[in-house]
Amino acid sequence: MSILHDLAATIETRKGADPDSSWTAKLLAKGPEKCAEKFGEEAIEAIIEAVKGNRNGLVSEGADVLYHFLVMLAARDVALEDVLSELARRQGTSGIAEKAARPEG
Ligand SMILES: N=c1c2ncn([C@@H]3O[C@H](COP(=O)(O)OP(=O)(O)OP(=O)(O)O)[C@@H](O)[C@H]3O)c2ncn1[C@@H]1O[C@H](COP(=O)(O)O)[C@@H](O)[C@H]1O
Questions:
Q1: Is the ipTM here above 0.90?
Q2: Is this structure's pTM higher than 0.90?
Q3: Across residues 35-53, what is the average pLDDT?
Q4: Which of the four CATH numbers 3.40.960.10, 3.40.50.300, 1.10.287.500, 1.10.287.1080 does domain 3-101 have?
Q5: 14 in ligand 1 pocket by Cβ < 6 Å?
Q6: How many A from CA of 23 to the centre of ligand 1?
Q7: What's 104's DSSP letter?
């Protein structure tokens, strides 16, 4: 299990939990739209750090982005595994070398 899988599993346990018991439970209780909004805010903060060239800031905001991405997925009942499977599928269908190796037609 990766850290992302561990975190996704923790976030899953926060669904329906008392909003006063954890930050994640509180955010999920506000609904999927709020979760998506928070993801957008964190993404913008990461963009700002990237544009500034602030390595430490980008690492920190990047962690926020990944956490809020997982919360957004959980809020819409989309499994991390589905996103990872989509990435894996693309590994097999993209890339100049792979395309060149494929027969015509
Ligand atoms: N990785 C994170 C993580 N990253 C960011 N955050 C929270 O996300 C919030 C985002 O910061 P903001 O400044 O936007 O928050 P805010 O200003 O208080 O919120 P708003 O008023 O803007 O809505 C912070 O309060 C952080 O605590 C996180 N909260 C939890 N986790 C992980 O999730 C696990 C479960 O957390 P709890 O559900 O809180 O136990 C933890 O063990 C951590 O591993």
A1: no
A2: no
A3: 98
A4: 1.10.287.1080
A5: yes
A6: 6
A7: P
